[in-house]
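Instructor's aside before we start: the two examples that follow are unrelated to each other. I chose them only because their records fit on one page, so don't look for a connection. First example below.
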Amino acid sequence: MPTQAKRETIDSLVGLLNKSNAVFITEYRGLTVKKISDCRKRIREAGGAMKVCKNTLMRIAFTEAGITHAPEFDSGPNGYVLSYGDVASVAKAIRDFSKEKGNEALIVKAAVLEGKILSKEQVFALADLPSKEVLIAQVVGTIAAPLRGLVTVLSGPARGLVTCLSQIKDKKEAA
């Protein structure tokens, strides 16, 4: 039976897990405090939060929140990155930080997204996606393209008439 302090920690973690839409499991062994602080700052700016806690407490919190996770990722000092907004932005922040020189010690182990476990490669593929705003703009552009074409076609005869009348006017002025 967990102590009262551990119970409060677990309850806090369950609340955070219920609010998040994805959890990234990373290992931070070998990073300095300054680098971890920089990593947390980037994750916070992307709309997430990094929590470091005992793997056992997080395993209990996963179970209580009803989230399936792979127990093979419970070894080593893990940092759990919770995404509260755009999942791709948080994945991109983690990937970009881990790719920088000197930050190779941050290892992405896996992620849990909508009940599915993602591998490191899938997390990096998620990080390659454009942001939510860019995707929305692309969809709107795709929807608007046929309308734009229709407007161009419908305005063609009127534009031709205006051009013809302009040329007649120029000929009469010249004469």
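Example two begins here.
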Amino acid sequence: MTTTSTTEQPQVRAEPSVTLRGVSWQTYQALMHDVGDNRAWRIAYDQGILEIRMPLPKHEEPKRLLESFIEVVVDELGIELRSLGALTLEREDLTRAVEPDTCFYIQNESRVRGQDKINLPDDPPPDLVVESDYKNSSINKFKLYAELGVPELWRYRQNRLEVYQLIERQYEKTQQSPTFSFLPISEIPGLIEQSKTRGQRAVVRLFRQRIRGI
């Protein structure tokens, strides 16, 4: 495994975003309280820097398919999953917060089952976070997720799926998912591309057949 660079690489297909600096934690919390959860945009906050981005539909589609693939895997394995989408992950003691494209509780599902609110650090962070294709960020997402203690991170960008594992407070790129070691990671981008011609549910069915054949 190789340690990932802490510098985000420029993205080709940029999402609309705005970055505000010098934003206090109290101001950030007041903004989040005023706008509520019924909004299309997502945030990342890192010690005074607030980034607001608007996900594009072409970036949402891969995320939705990745959610379906993960649901197929847990269904075939007969294990529980709590899928919480763009859950707001906050640590006031660290003055950091982020909303992933989607996230999952798997190993720790029973610890947060049925809870109306997740409170870090009293509750564990999601076991798996997914970030779809996004622009060059003014906030280092790897460092942010590492500080929040997320053990596994998937990043889909430029038709590639990259998997990272948190080891000693930094992410290392790996060829296998720590949670689902048997998962054919290298085949997933091809299935996402096929969905453009064959349809989303068709490739989900293909994926299910592939998993059953492992």
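The longest strand covers residues 160-167.
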